[in-house]
């Protein structure tokens, strides 16, 4: 199983198990996240790029992968994603560089699928 499939399959499986517990707070939080990334005054592509930059600064590799996938699906170009990476490194500092390496690997996997 490849990098993309492994991440997406695990995420889907675990989200299903979590939501099956029918915890109101968790369900509402998941819904809030879904609604935050819906089109509004900002389009989905822009929101996903913001989410990617924030995820890199927060150093959450799962979040980075999720937002990279969403960025790719939203039509973000390689040049655009590298500008997002540059902002994340600028804001987050050198500690973001290991996450940048993994992000580039994941982005290239998306491009080559």
TrEMBL record:
Residues covered by the Carboxymuconolactone decarboxylase-like domain: 27-105
Pfam families hit by this protein: CMD (PF02627)
Superkingdom, natural source: Bacteria
Classification via InterPro entries: AhpD-like, AhpD_core, CMD-like
Protein name: Carboxymuconolactone decarboxylase family protein
